Structure formats: structure tokens, C-alpha cells
Amino acid sequence: MSDIVIVAETGSDIPASEAAELGIELVPMHVSIGDATIDDGTLDPAEMLEQCRQLGVLPRTSGCMPIDFQRVFDRIHEQRPEAKILYIAYSAVTTCSYESARTAAEGRDYVYSFDTTHVTIGQGFVVRETALYLREHPEVSIEELMAWSEDLAGRMRMGFIPGDLGYLRAGGRLSNAAFLGATLLRIKPIIELIDGKLTATKKLRGKMEACALGLMDHMALQGDYDTSVIYFVRSSGLPLSVQQAAEKHARELGFESFRWYDTQDVITSHCGPGSFAVAFPGIRK
After folding, report:
1. CB 159 within 8 A of CB 192
2. What does pLDDT average to over the chain?
3. What stretch of H or E contains 17?
4. How many CA atoms lie within 13 A of 21 on its CB side?
5. Which 8-state DSSP code applies to residue 283?
6. In the chain, where do the E strands start and end?
7. In sequence order, which ranges of 105-164 are alpha helices (DSSP H)?
8. The predicted structure's pLDDT at residue 167
9. Strand ordering across the sheet containing 36-39
10. What is the predicted pLDDT for the residue at 179?
């Protein structure tokens, strides 16, 4: 067994069951629904959206607090005192989580960390593939593993089409002017992570199926890419026809396999119902 434990936020959208199978520790982010606050992943996203609808509110999110990381770091250190921890972080410019982890790591020389500059399955891709690499190379040092993971993060491409721009606007991630223009023109913007920030990069028009394929083409045209696997992520309400079209187009783009993930409460709160995203890396230079 390796003496390294990988830690990430629930905002990576890695399911708890898969995290447990791969030995990944997930630290909860948080969602507020009216006056109530829950840990990310404790409520089915469709149920969360329904509660918001009944209350007439939009969900609000918050990152992990230092105490959230302290509890996880303490538990790992108590159970495996010789283990080192590699924290693979959610984009630091979008949430307080990274700073919270740095605060919790003070005085702990066994904690290593870096900012992926990605969110949802862009981060999740790095976390999962790093866990698989660690499983295949249990002898790897913490420094070598972090360098491998940072290289992968630097090559990641992740973009999404929000299902409802109102959720991005409510979360402060889309200006009112951009929201109004996109709504009036029935535009579906591609949102990408650029320097860790959510940035609208291209405007698409049409039905969600055509826009989903347009997103995939846009990401593929950014240069040569690793065709081993593409990760898809969907939020509650994405039509099955869109999912089937995305799988077919992935094969047309040369991908050997694909994996589907579902947004949990935090990411659903940002993108709304019926959103679609893709993540895959460029080739190693």
C-alpha cells in the first residue's frame, strides 16, 4: 500500500462510492437553501432544486472551511500517521477552499497541495487519474506524484454549457448585462476555466443537442488531445437524446472511452438543471 492519501473537495463531482473505492478523501463544500445549510452531496440535486422551487429561492454555495479540512487531515493522520497527504484543489479563485486548506495545514509537514485551476469534473479528472496512477505506482514519492498530477492539471480542457443562466448570475459568476443579452438572444454560452476563472468564450445558438456537440468540437479544436477517455458531466434534467448524441460524437472525435458523472449540489447550484460539460487533457509534450 502507498503511504500517500489524495484529498479533494466534493465540488470535484466524484461520487462518494467511487472516492471510497479509489481511496480518495472528499472534503464537503456547502449549499444554503433558504435558511438551511447542507453539506454538498447529502441531498439529491433534483430534490435540492425542488426545495428551492417550493421556497422560491436559488441555492447559495460556500467553500470548505478550515474546520472541514482539519477534521479530514486529523482523521487521516490518526489512522495512518506515516502517510503523506496530497490535496488536489478546486480552483482557488472561485472559492475559499484552497485558503481554508492552507490554514488547516499549518504545522503539518505531511500535507502537500496545489491548485488545479479547475472545477467539477475538470478537477475530478485530475483527482481520479492521479488516484489511478498512484494505485499503479505505489512506490512513487509524494513529490513525483504531485509533479505528475500538476502536469495533468496543466493540460486539462474543461468547458460547460449551463442549463439555466439565472443560476450563474445568482452566484455572481455572470454579469447582469451578459445575462440579459444571452437571454434575449437565446444564446447558450460556452463557459471555460481560464486562469482558474469561469469565462464565457463562445456563443452558441440552437437546441441543447447541437450546442453540446458544438462544445465538444470547440474543445477538440484547441489542439492535439489525449484520446484515451473523455469525461462528461450532466446536471439533473439533461435530455437522454443529448447524452446519446455526445457519446456518438465522442467516438467520431476518436475517443476510445467515456465516463459520465452527475453534478452534486454545489455544481448544480452554479449551472442549474440540464447543464452539460466535458473534460479531457491535451497531449503530454
Report:
1. yes
2. 91
3. helix 16-22
4. 7
5. P
6. 4-9, 24-27, 30-33, 36-39, 60-62, 84-89, 111-115, 156-161, 187-194, 197-205, 230-234, 258-262, 276-281
7. 120-136, 142-155
8. 54
9. 36-39, 30-33, 60-62
10. 38
* pLDDT tens digits along 46-58: 999 999 889 998 8
Quickly count: other Cβ atoms within 10 Å of residue 258's Cβ: 15
Query: Angle between the 97-104 and 66-79 helix axes, to the nearest 10 degrees?
Result: 50
Q: How far is CA 277 from CA 65, 82, 258, in A?
A: 27, 38, 13
Residue 163 has pLDDT above 90, yes or no: no
Determine the pLDDT at residue 141.
97
CA-to-CA distance for 121 and 126, rounded, in angstroms?
Answer: 8
Q: Are strands 276-281 and 230-234 parallel, antiparallel or unpaired?
A: antiparallel
Q: What is the mean pLDDT of residues 82-110?
A: 96
Contacts for 279 with CB less than 8 Å, ≥ 6 apart:
118, 120, 121, 122, 124, 125, 156, 157, 158, 230, 231, 233
**Residue 114 β-bridge partners:** 88
Whole-angstrom Cα distance, residue 56 to residue 170? 13
Q: Where are the alpha helices (DSSP H) in 240-284?
A: 240-252, 265-271
pLDDT of residue 186: 64
Q: Residue 64 carries which DSSP code?
A: -
Domains of the chain: 4-34+42-47+60-155 (3.40.50.10170), 156-281 (3.30.1180.10)
How far is the CA of 114 from the CAs of 6, 22, 64, in angstroms?
Answer: 12, 20, 16
Share of the chain above pLDDT 70, in %: 92
Q: Is the pLDDT of residue 171 over 70?
A: no
